[in-house]
């Protein structure tokens, strides 16, 4: 009598001769998936390798290889004299694939158990850099004008012959040579002298904000926050369990007196004194002094976000609050994302001397270090004078684009919106006439190929007049006219 073929029938295994995946991988993956989905249960016997090879018209060594691989992974086992079986120690009803992807038996989503902060964060927006580039995308540098050839030379020069040094973990607070170059830049171009030991290099400005909150605040502590203000930073502080207190912004900047009256015991004030985002106003000197006096009297801290300070078109860049701080209450935050390019992910803090030790320890716990080779290349770029040259060229370029933007925008949007272009920064505002809804107009503009943000997205209390936030720095002047025509069409229809 001929020997009977035993083992499960495996009709789901198909081999595609034209597939890029090797045949043994196709068979192996399908067997593994059948076990995970419960189609082949624990203890199920498989056909002998010779039988399976004949059925699939595959060489027997290929099938043997598949079975051995799945044995090593724990999915199969061999019983002496009996053959190959699905491993007996697998769960009796393995999780089905659709359940493992986050749905239950009825197809309903399974909600993971999050921490209190995780639940809060899951309700917030963290959309950064996801908008497709079109005119007039806000906060967009002229990336096509970045001196890539010089940057590559700086990178090669900084990392040549030092592999052992820059492949290891770096200093948690930043490479000494970069901190020295940043201190030199701040002293020369911002009139703000500091010791390189006061500088902590971070992976971007947001990491600096988070570091300050982690070191100095407890859950529930209050922080003044300008309203309107950057929504991602607002959500960051909320996700760190701070009580964010909206503070109005007027022509002279943050309403310091009103904030001190409403929230006198706040732990922090988050301020953008050199150029508020998105309104573009600057904090007046009397309000700067009042802010410093409040921080000193209440033993509070000021987080100074020096947003877009490099790009000022009327006069020199304004001094920072830190440069006039006689109380050591200011934590200065700078970044190279707008001055160079966003993907560089290098920012820095300038700290009061008493905070350096605590921030060093926390930076080591949270960030370990910013990639060393990027720091060394940036130090070479600054030290060689290329950073200052690039800033000068971009100021000139952005000034030209700003002038074209104001002229073309004022003409195209006459009767629809008023163009408000501050003396510094990379963005402008189009204040909408009538009772138009900026969120609706934002969607209409995007549909016509014009990118912008509604001011209402930046407001957390006390609704303001509707406006669209528009970026001019990344748009060549010859593309502006047509884009303004499309924007006017979107506004006119709504």
Written description of the protein model:
40% of the residues lie in helices and 13% in strands. It is an alpha/beta fold and 494 residues long. Strand 4, helix 10 (231-239) and strand 5 form a beta-alpha-beta unit. The N and C termini lie far apart (86 Å).
Our count of domains comes out at 3
Number of helices: 17
Radius of gyration of CA atoms, rounded to a whole number: 30 Å
The CATH class name of the largest domain reads Alpha Beta
Overall structural class, as computed from helix and strand content, comes to: alpha/beta
Tell me what portion of residues adopts beta-strand conformation: 5-15%
Write the layout of secondary structure elements.
Blueprint: H1 23-36, H2 49-56, H3 60-73, E1 76-79, E2 83-86, H4 97-100, H5 116-122, H6 148-159, H7 163-166, H8 176-189, E3 199-202, H9 205-216, E4 222-227, H10 231-239, E5 243-250, E6 253-254, H11 256-262, E7 268-271, H12 285-298, E8 301-305, E9 330-335, E10 347-350, H13 356-366, H14 372-383, H15 386-412, E11 417-420, E12 427-432, H16 438-447, E13 453-454, E14 467-471, H17 477-493
Helix pairs in contact: 1-3, 2-3, 5-10, 6-14, 8-14, 9-13, 15-17
Question: What does this entry show, briefly?
Answer:
The chain has 494 residues and is of the alpha/beta class.
């Amino acid at each position: 009598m001929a020997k009977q073929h035993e083992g499960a029938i495996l009709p789901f295994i198909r081999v595609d001769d034209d597939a890029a995946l090797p045949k043994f991988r196709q068979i192996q993956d399908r067997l593994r998936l059948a076990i995970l989905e419960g189609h082949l249960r624990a203890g199920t016997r498989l056909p002998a390798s010779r039988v399976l090879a004949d059925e699939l018209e595959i060489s027997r060594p290929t099938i043997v290889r598949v079975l051995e691989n799945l044995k090593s992974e724990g999915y199969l086992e061999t019983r002496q004299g009996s053959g190959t079986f699905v491993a007996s120690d697998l769960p009796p009803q393995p999780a089905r694939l659709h359940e493992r992807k986050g749905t239950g038996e009825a197809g309903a989503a399974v909600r993971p158990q999050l921490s209190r902060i995780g639940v809060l964060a899951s309700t917030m927006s963290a959309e950064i850099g996801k908008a497709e580039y079109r005119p007039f995308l806000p906060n967009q540098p002229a990336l096509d004008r970045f001196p890539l050839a010089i940057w590559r030379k700086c990178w090669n020069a900084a990392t040549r012959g030092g592999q052992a040094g820059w492949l290891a973990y770096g200093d948690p607070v930043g490479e000494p040579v970069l901190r020295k170059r940043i201190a030199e830049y701040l002293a020369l171009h911002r009139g703000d002298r500091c010791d390189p030991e006061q500088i902590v290099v971070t992976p971007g400005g947001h990491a600096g904000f988070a570091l300050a909150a982690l070191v100095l605040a407890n859950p529930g502590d209050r922080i003044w926050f300008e309203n309107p203000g950057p929504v991602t930073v607002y959500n960051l502080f909320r996700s760190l369990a701070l009580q964010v207190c909206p503070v109005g912004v007027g022509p002279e900047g943050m309403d310091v007196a009103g904030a001190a009256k409403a929230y006198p015991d706040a732990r922090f004030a988050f301020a953008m004194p050199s150029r508020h985002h998105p309104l573009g106003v600057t904090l007046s000197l009397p309000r700067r002094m009042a802010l410093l006096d409040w921080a000193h009297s209440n033993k509070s801290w000021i987080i100074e976000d020096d947003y877009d300070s490099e790009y000022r078109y009327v006069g020199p860049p304004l001094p920072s609050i830190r440069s006039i701080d006689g109380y050591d209450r200011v934590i200065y935050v700078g970044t190279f994302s707008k001055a160079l390019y966003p993907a560089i992910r290098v920012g820095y803090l300038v700290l009061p001397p008493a905070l350096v030790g605590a921030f060093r320890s926390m930076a080591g716990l949270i960030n370990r270090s910013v990639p060393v080779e990027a720091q060394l290349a940036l130090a070479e770029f600054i030290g060689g004078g290329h950073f200052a040259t690039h800033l000068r060229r971009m100021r000139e370029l952005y000034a030209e684009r700003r002038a074209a933007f104001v002229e073309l925008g004022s003409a195209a949007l006459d009767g629809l919106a008023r163009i408000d272009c501050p003396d510094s920064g990379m963005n402008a505002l189009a204040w909408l006439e009538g009772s138009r809804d900026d969120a609706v107009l934002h969607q209409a503009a995007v549909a016509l190929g014009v990118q912008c943000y509604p001011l209402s997205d930046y407001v957390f209390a006390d609704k303001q007049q509707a406006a669209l936030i528009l970026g001019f720095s990344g748009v060549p002047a010859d593309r502006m006219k047509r884009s303004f025509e499309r924007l006017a069409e979107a506004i006119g229809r709504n």
